[in-house]
Amino acid sequence: LYSLCVNDKEGCFIPVSEIVPAFSFDVEVPFFNILVPTVETTMQRLLVENLMSAGYHVLFSGETGVGKSVGIQQFLGSAG
Residue 75 has what pLDDT? Predict the structure, then answer.
């Protein structure tokens, strides 16, 4: 159930794995700011985008080092 998302253009469910962005390594980015896109990080990004666009507050919690801060920083950097 949680590995699917809605394809807005075609109105159907698709696996999240089909929309994981490609990763390109940039030697200028500090190691601790690198976030390699995975199915999990893509689902987190979709969740925060949808909740924020609907006007909800979002709090990410989890173990140290799983990428919470980097993921939120990347979302905020691309939010416009």
Answer: 87
Bin 11: left if φ > 0, else alpha if -120 < ψ < 50, else beta. Answer: left
Are 41 and 35 spatial neighbours (Cβ–Cβ below 8 Å)?
Answer: yes
**Residue showing tokens 């999240």:** 16
Judging by beta carbons within 10 Å of its beta carbon (0-12, 13-18, 19+), is residue 37 exposed, middle or buried? middle
pLDDT at 14: 94
What do you get for the CA distance between the two ends of the chain, in Å?
Answer: 30
The helix-helix angle for 68-78 and 39-53 (nearest 10°) equals: 50
What the block records as the tokens of 73 is: 């920083």
Cβ contact 19:8 at 8 Å: no
Q: Residue 77, CB half-sphere, CA atoms under 13 Å: how many? A: 7
